[in-house]
Amino acid sequence: ETVAKRRRALLAIVCCTTVMLIEFGGGLAAHSLALVTDATHMLADVASYCIVLVSLGTASKGPSARASFGLLRAEVLCGLGSLLLIWATAGVLLYEAAWRMYDLASSDNKPRTDGPTMLGVAALGLASNLGLLLLFRGSGDKGDDSHGHSHGGGDMSTRAALVHVAGDVAQSGGVLIAAALITFDGQRWVWLDPVVTAAAAVWMLSGTLGLFREAYTVLMEASPPDIDTNELRRVLSRRADVTSIHCFHLWALAPGKLTLTAHVLCAPSCEDTDEVLEDLCKVCQYKFGIHHVTFQV
To answer: Family per UniProt (predicted)?
Structure first.
C-alpha cells in the first residue's frame, strides 16, 4: 500500500507540474488571473505531493531506541504543513482577486481576456484535476475499520493532498464556466475571472477545518472525538472481578492509531488476572478499535 501511494504521489507531481506550466503560460497569454492563480494553486499542490512522499517515507519506519513509537507523528506534522500551504495559497488568491475586482470597478479600460485561450487551457486543467482526484480518492480515508467504524485513519498528508485536488477541481470547473462566458461576451463577463478565483479560495479554506481539528487533537494528545471515554470506562468496568479503573489515558499516536493505558484494580477474589486482561483487551480492540492497549493490574 505504501509503494502504491508513493507511485500515485510521483505520478501526481509529474502531471501537476506539466499542467501548472501550461496554465501559467496560458494565463499570461490570455490575461486571465483565474488561470494564473490556478497555476499558483497547482504549485502548492506539487509541494503537497512532495510532503506526501516525505510523510510516507518517515511514517513507515519502525520504532527505534530514540523513537519508541516510531515516526507516526511525522504524517501529522507533514499534513499540518500541507494545510499551511493551502492557507497561504488561499490568502494570495483572495488578495489578487480583490485587487483585480477593484481594478475592474475603478478603471474604464477593462482588461481584455482572451476567452478561447482561457477556455482551452481551463478544459485541460479540469481534465487533469479530475484525473488526480480519481487517483487520490479512496487512498486517504482508509482507516482501521475492522470493528465496524474508523477513527480518521489514512495518513493525514494524503488526505490534505486530496483537499488540494478537490479545491483544484472546483476552481478549474469555475474557471471553465467563466472562460465559456467570457468567450461568448468578454466585456460583459470579465468580472467572473476574479470572482471565480475568490470563490475557489474560500472553498479551499472551508475544506481544511476538519483536518486541522484532527491534527490539533493528535498533537495535543486529546481523546479521539468519536470515542466516548466515559462509556469506554463503563464498559470495561462491567467485567466481573474489576472493581475500578483509574490512571485512564486514551490518545492517538496518529489518525486511526489509538493507544490506551490504564490501571485496573481487581477484586481480591479474582483468581485469574490474565483472563481479565485478555477480555478487556478484546473489548478495546473489537468494540472500540483500540489495538495498542496497556493495562496494569
So the answer is: Belongs to the cation diffusion facilitator (CDF) transporter (TC 2.A.4) family. SLC30A subfamily.
> Helices 156-184 and 192-206, interaxial angle, to 10°?
160
Q: Secondary structure of the chain: what % helix, strand, coil (to 5)?
A: 65, 10, 25
Kindly report, residue by residue over 28-79, the tens digit of the pLDDT. 888 787 788 778 778 777 877 777 777 777 766 777 788 777 777 877 887 7
Instruction: Please state, in angstroms and rounded to a whole number, the distance separating the CA atoms of residues 194 and 192.
Output: 6
- pTM to 2 decimal places: 0.69
Q: What is the dihedral of CA 195, 200, 202, 204, to 10 degrees?
A: -170
How far is Cα 179 from Cα 192, in angstroms, rounded to an integer?
A: 9
Residue 101, C-beta contacts closer than 8 angstroms, at least 6 positions apart: 191, 194, 195, 198
What are the beta bridge partners of residue 259?
A: 251, 292
* Alpha helices in 207-272, H assignment, sequence order: 209-219, 229-237
Domain ranges of the chain: 1-220, 229-295
- Angle at which helix 156-184 crosses helix 73-106, to 10 degrees, equals 20
Question: What number of CA atoms fall less than 13 Å from residue 165's CA on the CB side?
Answer: 27
* C-alpha to C-alpha distance for 200 and 166, rounded to whole angstroms: 10
Burial classification of residue 243, based on how many CB atoms lie within 10 Å of its CB (0-12 exposed, 13-18 middle, 19 or more buried): exposed
For the structural domain made of 229-295, what CATH number should be given?
Answer: 3.30.300.20
Query: Has residue 168 got a pLDDT over 90?
Result: no
